[in-house]
């Protein structure tokens, strides 16, 4: 009797063992349509969310056309315009600015330069639609232009790789590219512009990179007070807290890629220290080497290489920014 019970138990155990994979397959088969349905629901929800954000979008009243040709094209700028800064995402986690908005080396620098390393993730500042993904060798390098529902357009220059396509809708915080050193650039960094109706506005009026936040929930642009406010924003949130001339430049002619607005470092500029809190940088002068810079700063070549993610054999160029503490 005992032997018979043991045989029965053994048969049931074997049957159960072989049935488990089949049960698992049945479960997966039943789950697959649910997964596809949930994915469709998620996509629909995201689409509805984007539609809700774009509904009655201020950008619709500011811009008459949509093209993938011009990085920026000046149009009629309103005397007053309120820009909603809520729902923002900082384009980079870097807190280090290396160049201000405004007059620089005899011309206007139309954005902020933020120190990033090659491969660092660059993200969309606000939700919107990608208007341009292009390469400009003598200017922005690999760059992306996004038109946002709040009326702003943002430009992200000198990236090593673009991760979006033209006419693609993006949400604030979505990865759009990787940090780089392409185009008219002498060191890895992000050139970041904020434009209204094609006219460059000082990003420091809206973004506080050092504190990784926006300045307020809204920024009210006023032609009559812009220049004074821009200079004050640079004094408070710029490189070294030094105000520069941020005059509003409203060109009459159509502009294509505006190479002058990119972050070229002058080879004629002498070595300088750029101080941001406790972090210090060295701007490379003509004829300098990693060895001479290390000696000047009281460091070793290997220490400088480690701080800047480069090798001792890396060729440095005049105007390049190197961290040395």
**Helical segment count:** 5
How far apart the termini lie comes to: 84 Å
- The helix/strand order is HHEEEEEEEEEEEEEEEEEHEEHHE
Biggest β-sheet strands, sense, barrel: 8 strands, antiparallel
Specify the overall morphology: globular
List low-confidence stretches. 20-25, 252-278
Average pLDDT over all residues:
79
- Indicate the percent of residues in helices: 25-40%
Alpha carbon gyration radius: 27 Å
Instruction: Estimate the strand proportion.
Output: 25-35%
Tally of extended strands? 20
> Helix/strand-derived class?
alpha+beta
Walk me through what this model shows.
The chain has 325 residues and is of the alpha+beta class. The chain has 5 helices and 20 strands. It has helices at residues 2-54, 58-62, 226-237, 290-296, 301-308, and strands spanning 80-84, 97-99, 102-104, 107-109, 112-114, 121-123, 128-136, 141-148, 152-159, 161-162, 169-170, 175-178, 190-196, 199-201, 207-208, 213-214, 218-222, 273-276, 279-283, 321-323. The strands form 6 sheets. Strands 2, 5, 7, 8, 9, 11, 13 and 14 form an 8-stranded antiparallel β-sheet that branches. A 3-stranded antiparallel β-sheet has the order 6-12-10, with no helix packed on it. Strand 18 (273-276) and strand 19 (279-283) form a beta hairpin. Helix 4 (290-296) packs across helix 5 (301-308). The longest helix has 53 residues, at 2-54. It is globular. Mean pLDDT is 79; it is low at 20-25 and 252-278.
């Amino acid at each position: 009797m005992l032997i018979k019970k043991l045989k029965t138990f053994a048969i049931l155990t074997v049957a159960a063992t072989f049935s488990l994979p089949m049960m698992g397959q049945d479960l997966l088969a039943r789950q697959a349509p649910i997964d596809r349905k949930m994915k469709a629901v998620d996509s629909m929800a995201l689409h509805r969310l984007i539609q809700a954000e774009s509904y009655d979008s201020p950008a619709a009243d500011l811009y008459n056309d949509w093209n993938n040709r011009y990085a920026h094209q000046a149009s009629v700028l309103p005397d007053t315009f309120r820009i909603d800064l809520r729902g923002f995402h900082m384009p980079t986690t870097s807190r280090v600015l290396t160049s201000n908005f405004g007059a620089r080396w005899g011309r206007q620098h139309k954005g902020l330069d933020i120190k990033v390393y090659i491969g660092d993730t660059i993200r969309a500042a606000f939700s919107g639609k990608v208007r341009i993904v292009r390469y400009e060798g003598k200017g922005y390098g690999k760059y992306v232009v996004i038109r946002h529902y709040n009326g702003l357009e943002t430009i992200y220059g000198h990236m090593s790789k673009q991760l979006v396509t033209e006419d693609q809708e993006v949400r604030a915080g979505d990865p759009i590219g990787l940090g780089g050193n392409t185009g008219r650039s002498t060191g890895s960094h992000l050139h970041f512009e904020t434009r209204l109706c094609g006219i460059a506005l000082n990003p420091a009026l809206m973004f506080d990179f050092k504190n990784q936040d926006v300045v307020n929930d809204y920024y009210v642009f006023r032609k009559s007070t812009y220049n004074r406010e821009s200079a004050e924003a640079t004094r408070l949130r710029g490189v070294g807290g030094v105000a520069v001339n941020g005059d509003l430049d409203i060109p009459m002619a159509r502009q294509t890629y505006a190479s002058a607005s990119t972050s070229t470092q002058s080879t004629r500029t002498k070595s300088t220290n750029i101080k941001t809190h406790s972090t210090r940088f060295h701007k490379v002068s003509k004829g300098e080497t990693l060895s001479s810079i290390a000696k000047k700063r009281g460091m070793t070549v290997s220490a400088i290489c480690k701080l800047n993610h480069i090798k001792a054999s890396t060729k440095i160029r005049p105007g390049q920014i190197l961290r040395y503490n």
